[in-house]
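Colleagues,

Please find the record for the two-part complex below.
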Amino acid sequence: MAHPQDLTGDGQQFFEARRKVFPKAVDGPFRRLKWAIMLVALAIYYVTPWLRWNRGPYAPDQAVLVDLAHRRFYMFSIEIWPHEFYYVAGLLIMAGIGLFLVTSAVGRAWCGYACPQTVWTDLFVHVERAIDGDRNAQIKLQRAPWGPSKIARRIAKHSIWLVIGALTGGAWIFYFADAPTLGRAFVQGSAPFVAYATVGVLTATTYIFGGLMREQVCIYMCPWPRIQSAMLDEKSLTVTYKAWRGEPRSHGLKRAEPLAQVVLGTPSLVALIEQPELASRIGDCIDCNACVAVCPTGIDIREGSQIGCITCGLCIDACDGIMAKIGRPSRLIGYTTDLDARLAQAGEAPVPALKRLFRPRTLLYFGAWAGIGLAMLFALGNRERIGIGVLQTRNPQWVRLSDGSIRNGYTVKVRNMEERPRSVEIAISGVPGAVLWTEEAGRNQAARSVRVDVAPDQVAQVPLFVSAPGAGPTRADLAFTVRALDKEGGSARDTSFFERPEPTP
Amino acid sequence: MADEKRIDEPTGTSFVGHEWDGIEELDTPMPRWWLYTFYACIAFAAVMVVLYPAIPMLHSASTGVLGWSSHGDLAKEMAADHARRAPVMHALEQTPIEQIPADPKLLRAAQEGGHSAFKVYCTQCHGAGAAGAKGYPNLNDDDWLWGGDLKTIQQTLLHGVRQPGDDETRMSQMPAFGRDGILKPAEVQDVVSYVRFLSKQEGVTASSRRGAAVFTANCAVCHGDAGKGNRAVGAPNLTDGIWLYGGDRDTITETVTNARYGIMPAWGARLDPVTVKMLAIYVHSLGGGEKTPVDPVPAPAETPVPAAVAAR
């Protein structure tokens, strides 16, 4: 079988084999920050569905619950009905603008610290190190022939990865049903098929994305890095190799090419001792490759800002460790903006952080983000917990009754969004002489209003009949008002029509 | 061409050779796993073709090894739905019709089931909204020819109206007073005037005064002395605002002259008892349904039909 790269015959490579990345363990402030964020993020993810929240006897007591079957979304004290889905849309828009805000303030911090792909990959890499050892041991094991030890390690690693994947998928389903009940049913094998299917799919995706594909997801699959390349500007924080400080690199002194040219074949260390002024011409980068070794996406940050850089800062930790060892100032690699880099190169002071943060772009994003948030909070605080919707019966539009009056039919939907049963009064206005009644009560109970009991957190569908004297306009406005009869009160109004036959000439 | 290959300095990747307004395309190789994903899709398709219907043949597609078909799926779903509805249908079968309203869940199920059946069997004459048409009663109103409580509606449905061959069908016949010469044309006009006076469409006239006597002699036996009708024989109430064929002078004249003979099929012979029950409950719920009498009177069909109006 022809190898894919032989497709054209001239050895051109159409498909690039993956260069496996073996990130080396590193310690430092950014690594510790990543640990902390990973802990918090995973804790939020796994613990949230198990939090309880008392909503009384008529609603679930799960703090965060997406109840798809009953079309309800619970989040602590907030309950969202389907018609209020704009709150969820608003949250999503806030999340989107929030990403823009974060990007304009601190660059690709989402990619480097908080993205689930980053967090889970980090976790998987850690498991790999615990079993196979650090970078060098992993490379060695990769090259080693298959033997009992390698097989055992591979089985152990993939099993733990699969368990993590299953736990990840397992936690997800608890957001959609009562967690303790579903947990019990899941173990007993009586949970709905969709629960097992979801866990299966999420186990597979977690295992594949976090364990197998890792940086390939960021480099090839995720759209966010592409959007980022359009969003970054000269004031965006990026992980920057300060080439003006690092170059020319000196790998030991022997390989420092410019130096070798200067000293014309003399051993470079000797040259340095003989001509100490040369030291100022040697960069701080000793080409130790530590920044490349720790990079989880396998890039060389010294080539400049690039799409593969998720700005996780691990190379900063790695380089700072080396700089400390060779007695050079830290932050040869560091978070810098393009503008600051240029200023530093010219020997000028960087832009103060606050001035950088309070630039129009960041403020604009923050304004939009906070504006939507405040508007939603305001709307949430003012929303009416009772609602009415009137649907006029269209076939037949009107019915003549034996006493000559005209009857119209309506389906009135009364929405009780409180978690307790409520008595409400539905009243009509607008058509002289009109009376209404329910089918059960019958026409002899007809009045200007009817009382209806609405179950907690439910929509009551009330078929109503309205009759009015036969003489009158063919189409008249008819208003329906619903009023809660308990002391909290609240009311809502909807309008419809009352229709009569065309008068016979 | 190979000697024209140029390399993009910053990335070290060669150009494809396409250029749009100075923007050039780089020949970046795809990741290898992408290729494997493509192969996996081909393998998936091959398996799919074997397992499921895929290849178009002369009359239908090839049957897959699994024997799956969308018809089979539908049959399974229908069977499952039938099984799901079985308990409700059984309860509807066991519960006497007048007791169904006491169980709101059962009532709702019956109304919905009746609505579905109505759309299939009844809309042809009574209309999709049950509003009827000339000669076909409006089932929404509060006027009933044969009675509007649940049991009576069920009885009408089961045996129909003037359905030949059904012994218990609703039976009556109005004489063709004009055509058969029972009344002279002038008498017909007089009785029409009186009937229009009864329904408050006309005032008292000499014609209607004469018509009152004609009415008492010929019509009151079925329609009652006051013209309020008689449900035992399906004689309509002539004093209300509802007309099956029309309340204008010409239509009433035609009705008195030639009589009317509306027929409804006996659905008991075509539909199962539960469907008839559901239909009765649906029709009863349309707004004109009457309460079941506390002391059940004998079904109207069992009332002896007055000889004067007995069927031919």
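Confidence is low (pLDDT under 50) at residues 1-9, 254-267 of chain A.

Comments are welcome before we finalize the supplementary table.
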